[in-house]
Amino acid sequence: MFVEELIIDGFKSYAARTHITGWDHEFNAITGLNGSGKSNILDAICFVLGIRNYKLLRANNMQDLIYKRGQAGITKASVTVVFRNNDRKTSPLGYEDCKQISLTRQIMVGGKNKYMINGHTAQEQAVANMLQSVQLSINNPHFLIMQGKITQVLNMHPPEILAMIEEAAGTRMFEERKDKAQKTMSKKDKKIEEISAILTEEITPKLDKLRHEKQAYLEYQKVEIELDRLRRLVVAYDYTKCEESLNNSNSSMASGRARLDEMAVQLETIKAEIANIAKSKAKTEEKRRAEMSKSGEFKTLQAQIDELSKELVRIKTQSDLKTASIKEEQAAKSKLVASKGKFESELAKRATSFEKQMSKYTQEKQQYDEKAKDVTQLEELLQSLTTGVASDEGREGGFMQQLQEAKKEASEAATAIEQSKLRISLLKDESKEINGNLKKALKDNTGLLKEKESLEAQVASLDARINTHVFKPEAKRELGQQRAEIMSQIEAIDDRRRGMEAQMGNFDFQYQDPVRNFDRSKIKGLVAQLFNIEDKNKFAATALEITAGGRIYNVIVDDDETGALLLKNGGLRRRVTIIPLNKIAAQQLSPDVINFAKSLAPGRVDTALSLIGYPDDLEKAMAYVFGSTFVCKDPQTAEQMAFHKNIRKKAVTLEGDVYDPAGTMQGGAKPSSAGILNRLQALKNTRQQHAALRKELAAIDAQLAAIDELKDGYVQISRERDLAKHKLSLVEQQLSYSSHAHMTSRLESIASELAV
Fold it and tell me: Which residue in 527, 676, 681, 728 is a FRET match for 440, CA 20 to 30 A apart?
């Protein structure tokens, strides 16, 4: 690259836009009077090339580079250098096709700094990388050789000379990048150590504590639910028992109330008797006192007292007997209740037996009534025959009148028989006459009858040919209906397939043949289109999609030569990654690791490769995509697969969370492309249905074509049969109008009448 033009606008002493052209590609010198701005041109070149040390530009800060520090109405300074880029070998990376490269740097009051390459805004680092690729590093201390610098260069030490040579050779840029990358890596390592320490010291203990609390809470919930269920069961049992006891107490309470009423009556009676006894005792005491005070009839009164005491004992004894009798009555009542149940069951049995006997009685009574009716009728008939008088209403004439009516009916029948005999003789005479004339009429119609027989034979022969012909109109109609149904199904599947393909445009891999007569079977297609997931493994579709990642869009080819031709001449519309089957190095899980993992978590882990189906020739490519990953049913199993010392392999859960043995974990919300494998499988199934229906349609079309080839012969036979039937109908019509036909018809009617 060589400087072709320099444009300065508002930079230091150049207030107006200044173009400097005519640069020589080998040697240039700037001459002029003192203060004319010679040094500012060099400063402008250093400025646009991205110098960071403003002291080399004789400025304290960025604002000093603007004309009069922006106080003369000029608020920005810009410098543009235009390079001539004719030599592609020495051009910057990425700009080989540009004949000119313009680089602009612009600063504004306030400190805003802006770079542009060929009119497009660019980052400062991008500008530095472009210049360093052609050995232009303005920040190199040896980029500018000022006055007095030559002696300093001659006195340099070997390390300084090596640094200058590296800068001139262009390798210094990579050393700086290496140092920068090492500093970044050291910072990241420190950050990782800090994060690991936080994870180990704070997060992991807290997670363990939360897991234990969660387990305890789940146990507590389970116990609470079981306790609530048992409480409900106890309440229901108590309610049932209380309800039963309530029903029992209601019945016992009714009987107890009846007994209580009886006991209350007896108690009132006893109380009345006790009151009477107390009154009589008081009267006796008064009398005793009076008698003692009067004359001393103490013995008499004492005798009365003894009698009264005996009476009191007798009454108490009766009360005790009554109480005992009440208890006995209660026991007898309970026995009666038990016997009542037995009697009720016995009564039900007897009622059933009674109903059976009643039905049997009804049947026998009905038979008896019928026999009695028959006897009554026979008695009435006997009476009418013996006396000549009938007892029934409407038959008062008796047996003689009935006999006269029967004789009358017999005479009428004899008359009808005579008339019938006369009619039969007449019909027989007519039949003989017709038979005599029938032979003559038959001779007249011999030609028509022969023609009729010939036509009937011809029609029968044509019917037989039609019945045995290979062409069947019914088969063609059925095939036509089947074809219409299949076409409607194909149209519906086409609409659904086009909708699915429109939604998954990323999987529409198109290319042009890289060479003439190219064998397209060498390009297998996208990874996503070359494997399938069986219905029993669809639960792992999300995990498989996360496992494949971006490799699901890779293209599988048979070898590296085909891949190179495809990239070079395939006319690809987007960037793709090629997987050549002869070069790809697949990493598969060892059988020992798989067996150990399955023994560690039986039924909860599978290899991703075992959950998909694919052709045998694609095994290496599928192993490259899926071979080194486990699919786990829960996060705990995935964590074991990733961090167990005997396994340490990448694991993905059914929800799509990724556990990497390097220590990273990925998860959270599902990606925007979630479910793409299920949709791809649905599209494959739709395409298979479409292909199967197309194949069935082709078979039906072949059958229809074969049937159409036989149609002409069938149509010819059908026409001949229809013509023969038409001729036969004409002959039958002529015969129906002849005298022979009329005579035959009359003979048939006479025969039918005689048969009656």
Answer: 728
